């Protein structure tokens, strides 16, 4: 029996749901951490299937997929037993659609979900849709985990004896970091701390035109924490890694984008072009399967901003087909 309070609650308001089919990768929630695991909810674009798990509606060739993802990058043996409720909220609470399932997450199974009949969800008389918006909630009770390491976090707001030796000030907030560790990863910080500039002697150095939360995300990738790059953080991590010349972080972000199925082909091309990520460029172009798809890029605003090198790579890909 489920305890009264779930370990994870994720709520998504899916607006403009009638146009969800235009979004190749659906919609994803932010990542929520519980029991040292990263959880997110994915609402997939409606699709036609041969069957539907939505028994209340009977057969419905078009379904809305709601999937709970456990996106840990742990590659060793691990498991997590969880009870899950996926709820489609109704204007009348008594009419909520509640589907209960049990999942054994692990290295070979990182997701679990349910298909809901599209016709009933989008029928105004059923009470699930209002102003072209459907609200989904997912509640997770984590029953047992094995092989999960404790989440490693660093509190940058406090100094660490014999480790931190400089304070970076971002948006008026102090971050205690190690000069040597940052200099090892970044020529920018190496020059700042050891290049003979005036900042080298300061105990506090202000970084301008940087958002605090975004910079903390960058630090969490540089320093040995368990915080992972996500679809929400990858854009600003790339921006800051490029600004501060941190090649190791650019490489990690590139690998993340290659593996990500939530970023569409055009987004991947834009990132690859902007940050000169050759492996991502090759991967993104390989996602285009025919000439018309590639030619459709030309009138877009993204194409107009592409470098000559990227435009040439697109032409080469067309010639290969």
TrEMBL record:
CDD domains: BTB_POZ_ZBTB_KLHL-like (cd18186). It comes from the Eukaryota. InterPro entries: BTB/POZ_dom, MATH/TRAF_dom, SKP1/BTB/POZ_sf, TRAF-like. Residues 164-231 form the BTB domain. Gene3D superfamilies: Apoptosis, Tumor Necrosis Factor Receptor Associated Protein 2, Chain A (2.60.210.10), Potassium Channel Kv1.1, Chain A (3.30.710.10). PANTHER family: BTB AND MATH DOMAIN-CONTAINING PROTEIN 36-RELATED. This is BTB domain-containing protein. It comes from Pristionchus fissidentatus.
